[in-house]
Amino acid sequence: MAKTANLYARIEPEVKDQAENILEALGVPVSNAISMFYKQIILQRGLPFEVKLPAPPVPDMSQLTKKELAFEISKGLADAETGHVTPANEVFASLREEFSV
Q1: For 23-79, how does the pLDDT look when each residue is reduced to its tens digit (9 = 90+)?
Q2: Helix (H), strand (E), coil (C) string for the chain
Q3: Whole-structure pTM over 0.85, yes or no?
Q4: Is 56 contained in some domain?
Q5: Residues 65 and 95 in one domain
Q6: Is residue 7 within 8 Å of residue 34, measured between CB atoms?
Q7: Rounded to an integer, what distance in angstroms lies between the CA atom of residue 31 and that of residue 72?
Q8: Distances (CA, A) of 92 to 53, 56, 86, 89, 99
Q9: How many structural domains are present in the chain?
C-alpha cells in the first residue's frame, strides 16, 4: 500500500453533508474524491475549473424604474458609440451557421 498523508480542513457542515451525499450516491469515497481533486490540480497546473464571478443577470426591462431604464439605455448607447456592438445581421448569420442542420 502506498504511503498516505492526513489532510485536515474546515468546511461548512451543510456543504460537507451535501457533497458527501452526492459522493455516496456515486459510490466514491471522500478520500478518493479528494485524491482525484488533487491529481487534477497537478495535471491542470491549477484548479481544474474556472473560478470567476457569474455574469450579471440580464435585467427585466419591464420591471425597471424610469431611472433604471434610462441608465440601461445609456449603457447601450455608450457601447454603440465606442463600437462595442455586433450588427444584428452578423449575429443572425452566426446563429444560422451554428444551428443549421
Answers
A1: 999 999 999 999 999 999 999 999 999 999 988 888 888 899 999 999 989 998 999
A2: CCCCCCCCCCCCHHHHHHHHHHHHHHCCCHHHHHHHHHHHHHHHCCCCCCCCCCCCCCCCHHHCCHHHHHHHHHHHHHHHHHCCCCCHHHHHHHHHHHHCC
A3: no
A4: no
A5: yes
A6: yes
A7: 49
A8: 28, 24, 10, 5, 10
A9: 2
| Set of cell numbers at residue 71 | 441608465
Residue 4 lies in a domain: no
Domain assignment of residue 76, given as a range: 61-99
Residue pair 84/75 in contact (Cβ under 8 Å)? The answer is no
Find the distance separating the first CA and the last CA of the chain, reported in whole Å: 53
Shared domain check, 65 and 94: yes
